[in-house]
Specification:
Blueprint: E1 21-24, H1 31-48, H2 51-55, E2 58-66, E3 69-73, H3 76-83, H4 86-92, E4 97-98, E5 101-107, E6 112-122, E7 128-140, E8 146-158
Parallel strand pairs: 1-5, 2-8
Antiparallel strand pairs: 2-3, 4-6, 5-6, 6-7, 7-8
Length: 161
């Protein structure tokens, strides 16, 4: 995630599309690409510190599950508030960029998929300093667009020196 005041030459937030593992039901037409696009837009909005843009990628009610608990999300405004400080929180930990790497897409129905994403943490020098991963349950809505409805956070790993 790009977080410093200085602009980088080029930051590519494209979700890695290295043949993620696929299983489950028949997917919707163009579903894998639409999901990759969703993750690309998510990374771009996080990098810009744009909580409103992040919120537009979610549908409510939503749910976030993590080791420390669970959080229901009732409104888009809650999503926006949650992500509005992500850029600053990453910067405080030395994280300049996080890019989505799609690890697996599990189609549960033609309109619902679980998407496992690895988010490597990149510092200003371009070095990977850690990572986190999550599984997102996404739902197809209007015009073949997908939105996030559930997130299961797998946790964070620091890179061994």
């Amino acid at each position: 995630m790009h977080t410093r005041g200085a602009k980088s030459e080029h930051v590519d937030h494209k979700a890695t599309r290295s043949s993620p593992r696929k299983r489950g039901k028949e997917m919707s037409a163009g579903g894998d690409e639409a999901i990759a696009d969703l993750m690309d837009r998510f990374a771009k909005a996080l990098s810009a510190g744009d909580g409103a843009a992040v919120a537009q990628l979610w549908t409510v009610p939503a749910f976030v599950l993590y080791d420390g608990g669970a959080r229901p999300v009732a409104t888009i405004e809650e999503v926006e508030a949650f992500f509005s400080n992500a850029k600053e929180q990453y910067a405080a930990r030395g994280i300049d960029e996080a890019r989505p790497e799609i690890q697996a897409i599990d189609w549960m129905t033609s309109q619902l998929a679980n998407v496992t994403v690895r988010w490597p943490y990149i510092d200003q020098a371009g070095k990977e300093i850690g990572e986190e991963s999550s599984t997102y349950t996404v739902r197809q809505g209007e015009k073949n667009t997908f939105k996030i409805q559930v997130v299961v956070m797998h946790g964070e790993k620091k890179k061994a020196h």
